[in-house]
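Entry 14. Ran structure prediction on the chain below.
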Amino acid sequence: MLFNYFKIAFRNLRQNRIFSLVNIAGLTIGMAATMLIFLWVYHERSWNKQNEHYQDVYHVYANRDFNGQITSGPDMMFPLPAAARASFPEVEEAVIVDFGGNPLFTIGDKMIRRQTLTTSPEFFNVFSAQFIEGSAKVLQDPDALVVTESTAIAFFGHTRVIGETVKVNNGRSATIKAVVKDLPENSTVRFEVLQPFNQSTPQYREAQTDWVNCGNRVFFLVKPGANIASLEKKTLELIRKNASSENVTTRGSIILHPMSKWRLYEEFRDGRNTGGRIAYVKLFTWVAIIILLIACVNFMNLSTARSEKRAKEVGIRKTLGSGRKQLLLQFITESVLLAIIAFILASLVVWLVLPAFGQLLNQEINIPFNEPSIWIIILSIILLTGIIAGSYPAIYLSSFRPVKVLKGTFLPGKKALLPRKILVTAQFVISILLISATLIIYQQLQHVRNRELGYDVNNLVLVSSSGQAHRNLEAIRNDLRTTGMVESVTHTSSAVSDIFGFTSGIRWPGAPESNNLVIGFMFAGHDLAKTIGARMASGQDFRLNDTNHVIFNQEAIKVMGIQDPVGREIEWAGRRRIISGVIENMVVNSPYTSASPAMIVYEPNWSNQINIRLNQGVDIRKALVQIEQVFSRHNPENPFEYRFMDEVFQEKFTNEKLIGKLALIFSALAIFVCCLGLFGLLAFSIERRSKELSIRKVLGASLQQLLLLMSTEFLVLIGLAFLIAIPAAWWAMKEWLNNFEYRVNISAGVFVLVGLIILFIAFITISLNASRAALSNPVKSLRSE
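Output, structure tokens:
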């Protein structure tokens, strides 16, 4: 019986090629889009699951009050892990890990940078790794290195590297003691080289009792079933017991953030874990479902529109004894068969575009065929698509009464007219929502990119500094100026678009006794404002040998309440310092927030970045060649590595740009599927009304009148969809924009543009089909009567 159903289904597909092609094309696009999104969602939800202790590892966060604003951060004091292990029986293990860096490793003539973490010996008790050679015990050796397989090959060309030595940052020598498999790309705590803290140094011994400074990350491995809320409170009490009130952590609270939330729930607001990437994962999960539903709706509409051609078939089948259940099964079988064909084609499309999709996401997206859940999802997509798409047409077609059909008194399609209109309207509502979202995301990105930054990112080159480069900085500065390509040079502890760190304990005349000011800071050299293109609101830029001088931004002076600040003294880090000037507010860290208090400290001995301002109009390539020659003379021990400041700033928009691209791609696919369905509906409408159109043409109807006649019904539905979708789009995007302090206002012009785009696309789709019918010879149609 089932074989017979499939046989009849294939016969119907061959007999109705246009119907089959339109439906298969729509379902293929819908399924392919759904599969791509689900693969991305699966990848996002798979992060860190390769860890053995996935359910029991927690990242320690602190809620700190920064000038009345609660900020959550992972910066922790060095002694906390050892104290937690000793104090809390529910803490099975605790490890401290720095924030990582990219030191230079020298192997003979090779100079290679690798992502490196420095940690305590307990690291592999908390985080999983597959050892090729060596063991976790090697981290007890302060001169040991653990390298990944790809790093070993990059260093020596093979993985048998135990006992090999390398130089680190042209200084100490270290020995490779273990090799591990490359960590998966979907790991939050990743490294290419792992090294232990050197326990023999004075800095390490000082850090063991330093409960004030917070510059590392702490992770707890907690016993199953432990009371996490209680552990958070006890951790805070432990910090308060050991740290002085100078540590702002003592005035906040502690959050233990589980590994299962590190990727998707990474955002904190007002001291609470509020979400993060999970919002986009949920959003695009719904987008995938919606696109697939649009394709299913096309199938429903086209199937019910073709009811005239299937009515006699149904009538004869019922007369010959077929029951309604048999007819239902027959029509469902046809839709499942279409879904299977569409799925095969969609799988081919996914296989072809997956590398480009992964490149767009900057992630390695694979199809995990070895996972049983993937096969369950695949089977579910096929069956659900077939059943959802075929259910309504099957119920509608199987309800025909054979007497009316065979007598010719049955008027097909009338009962399906209203549902069909509702479904077409719903399709375009969704498309308008997606296009509106895409345009508003683009506007928000442009709004933030074009805001006044307080510094000039153009023609500003950042070169990575080193000990040798810093010692020869004045020679480098002089030689760069003699090239004629460079206007000015300065050094900073970080890129000017990022705060180097936060500090407290600043004292100034008139400061309140309960002064809890927490302020962002960075170190810099002379000619700072000149080089980065910043403007001084008052006072002057740093000059050579401006020892113990600082510059505040306008927001800091406002918060501190200092009148006429230039020349006044403050006290910080045990020194008295003079305010050289006040710089205009600059956009640092997040470009979506307003300026926060900041302090720039003159420090000739701290140089992580060398900032080079190029002269206007110079040839960038020639300038870089000459800059590299200067660094080769004065910094031969290190490779010449540079970045453009405008590119560094653009990295802050990575997430929003990705969401905008995804929204654009999938909204375009949704519109295409809608238009495909519209094209099919119109084709059947024209076929059904061919005699009417021919008679109208013979009686003198013009091409424009016929086009208007055939398009009016659909354009009215699109207009209705527009009226429904716009309020929903405005509300949804306003909620999204509320996540940003600095945001664009939604204007009516966006929705006018969306309406014009939808009408234009729909009208082109309608016109291409309708004009062919309007231009056809009416004699051919009328002669058949």
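The two ends are 39 Å apart (CA to CA). Will compare against last week's run tomorrow.
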